[in-house]
Design goal:
Blueprint lengths: L1 H36 L6 H23 L8 H8 L7 H17 L7 H18 L9 H16 L2 H12 L5 H22 L21 H27 L5 H18 L8 H8 L6 H19 L8 H22 L7 H17 L2 H12 L5 H18 L4 H18 L2
Helix pairs in contact: 1-2, 1-4, 1-5, 1-6, 1-8, 2-4, 2-10, 3-17, 4-5, 5-6, 6-7, 6-8, 7-8, 7-15, 9-12, 9-14, 9-16, 9-17, 10-12, 12-13, 13-14, 14-15, 14-16, 15-16
Length: 424
């Protein structure tokens, strides 16, 4: 249908521009950090601190001043819109989301493009529904959900993951109209992405063969550990958002703390800032990490992801969660190899599977996680370990009573909206 095609093309174009802007911002930040390390005085860290402070104030200030619903990943707001619980000021969301995320990531905040791409895709879907001349789909939420899937497809060059995400997370109905609208939008968006950015997968994984069947049992502990730590992540994130974003505490003090953390990490380990996509790509291509180093990096990224997502700036947790999963998987792989050297474990395989498992623990969308990782790596030999780890994660997460982060965040999002109206 024409609306779905136009929606996909527009979403793809915006997602490509968003992707290129974020890449430029990360490159600019790394150049500034490199220059600061060339300084012989102690002024280098202060320059990084100033950059981070300006970025967090500007990124969060844009959101607070012009469009509070654009904060964070935007997924809770999008879900509330699809449930009929929130209005959708689509043009403001689109503009503020784009600018705030680019500024925040350029400044070093640990945020990603996945959630914002979904949110902006949903905004474009609302815009198409509002502006389309003549007859349009009677149920406009279909275009909003399809736009969200198209945003995910274009963000990661993963059309199947975008479609599965719509069916698993955004749109609970699965009639032919919803399915084909989402499919057309995802395919059109991905075509734009491939035409501009190329047809290569996001992560350049050195070919990994399917593990022997007797090794598959080793992925169950990875699933269990992902469920436990994913639950800790969700509870910590929700608590931090309620404590910081939804309180009357002076936000400037919190922003100073966050900027200081970013400056310290940027001075000592700049690869841990930003989305972390290039850092994980290096690990998957053969960069070795000692077990204590990987564990320390997991702790640092865990804290910075929580802190950045609670700053009030726009930015998603898709890629940061995948980075945490990769580090966790690497640690499990290294530990398994030490305990059972006869297995001849490839830790990069566990890192890839860990991304899907930890994503499942946080979002509770195992099929999306499986399909997304297969498309991100272009490796279909990982199907069995992915299924074992992800569904082990989901089983334990449900048993522990862990809530999916986006579903649980809808309540925070509604309270934040009421708070912003009261304080204007």
């Amino acid at each position: 249908m024409a609306q779905a095609t136009v929606l996909g093309l527009l979403t793809g174009a915006v997602a490509v521009g968003f992707h290129l802007s974020l890449d430029y911002g990360e490159t600019l930040r790394n150049r500034i950090i490199d220059l600061t390390h060339q300084r012989t005085t102690t002024g280098g860290p202060w320059i990084i601190l100033g950059l981070a402070m300006m970025a967090v104030i500007l990124a969060a200030g844009l959101v607070i001043r012009f469009c509070p619903e654009a904060s964070g990943s935007g997924m809770p707001h999008l879900k509330a819109v699809l449930q009929g619980r929130r209005p959708f000021r689509w043009l403001k969301v689109l503009v503020v989301k784009f600018l705030s995320t680019v500024v925040a990531v350029t400044g070093g905040l640990v945020l990603g493009r996945g959630g914002p791409s979904v949110h902006m895709g949903g905004a474009i879907g609302q815009g198409v529904a509002n502006l389309w001349p003549g007859r349009v789909l009677q149920d406009r939420s279909i275009l909003v959900a399809a736009g969200g899937g198209a945003g995910l497809a274009a963000a990661f060059n993963a059309p199947l993951a975008g479609l599965v995400f719509v069916l698993e997370e955004l749109e609970w109905r699965c009639a032919s109209l919803e399915f084909f609208t989402a499919a057309i939008a995802c395919l059109a968006a991905d075509m734009v992405c491939r035409a501009v950015l190329g047809q290569y997968p996001t992560f350049h994984l050195t070919f990994v063969e399917a593990p022997p069947l007797n090794v598959l049992i080793a992925f169950v502990p990875l699933g269990i550990l992902s469920a436990v730590l994913g639950g800790v992540f969700n509870r910590t994130l929700l608590s931090a958002q309620r404590l910081i974003v939804l309180s009357f505490w002076p936000k400037l003090g919190w922003w100073m703390v966050l900027a200081s953390l970013v400056a310290i990490v940027g001075w000592l380990a700049p690869l841990l800032l930003g989305s972390g996509e290039h850092f994980v790509d290096g690990v998957l291509q053969g960069q070795r990490l000692a077990l204590p180093t990987a564990a320390l990096f997991f702790i640092i990224r865990f804290g910075l992801t929580i802190a950045s997502s609670s700053s009030g700036a726009a930015g998603g947790i898709f890629i940061p969660v995948l980075v945490l999963g990769a580090l966790l998987g690497w640690c499990v792989g290294e530990t398994t190899q030490r305990l059972f050297p006869g297995f001849n474990i490839d830790s990069s395989l566990f890192a890839v599977v860990g991304m899907a498992a930890y994503f499942t623990a946080v979002v509770h969308a195992p099929l999306t996680g499986i399909v997304l990782i297969i498309e991100l790596t272009g490796n279909y030999a990982l199907v069995l370990p992915l299924f074992i780890a992800c569904f082990s994660t989901l089983l334990i997460a449900d048993w522990l009573g862990n809530l999916p982060v986006y579903e649980a965040s809808v309540g925070n999002d509604l309270r934040k909206d009421r708070f912003s109206r009261l304080t204007r």
